[in-house]
């Protein structure tokens, strides 16, 4: 089921958003467990394997291998940050809904946020080869596609006019960028801190 949704968003996003809107009937707990917990494992496990087997490299420097004892706690923090980030974005969206004439529904916002983030979760596979010069273009491309999913999906999923959808999407992007900068700063500190724990 989830794989069908993911493939649909990658191949025919407008139709898939319509399908998700019509099928949206799960509880928050089910949505969280079925979708978010599994998707957030993709970048977490990829980075865990990449940093312990390949090594982490910044700006083409020699790769630094993390020990399993160092990488596992960092991966757990990273995983929790991903979950918190998605829930926080859904809550921001939930708080904005009434300004756009939509009956607030946190569950719907959570579903939309999770599936808008699918390209970013999939881009996490680049963590298997954690070289910054490789990871940045992959993440930028995934971010661009997530923005595309946001602008295409919002009017369909929320049943808005294209004008309302565009205004709502811009508001989400502005709020999301502020939240993303904070999350990225924390993630960078966690991973760079892990490298600082390495023996000289």
**What is the H/E string?**
HHHHHHHHH
The whole-angstrom Rg is: 18 Å
Mean pLDDT: 84
Q: Summarize the biggest pleated sheet.
A: none
> What is the number of independent domains?
1
Topology:
Elements: H1 2-11, H2 13-23, H3 28-39, H4 41-54, H5 68-96, H6 106-116, H7 118-123, H8 132-158, H9 162-196
What does this structure look like?
The protein has one domain (29-196). It has 9 helices and no strands. The chain has helices spanning 2-11, 13-23, 28-39, 41-54, 68-96, 106-116, 118-123, 132-158, 162-196. It is a multi-pass membrane protein. Pfam families: Yip1. Keywords: Membrane, Transmembrane, Transmembrane helix.
Put the structure in a nutshell.
The protein has 200 residues and is mainly α.
Supply the key terms.
single chain, 200 residues, mainly alpha
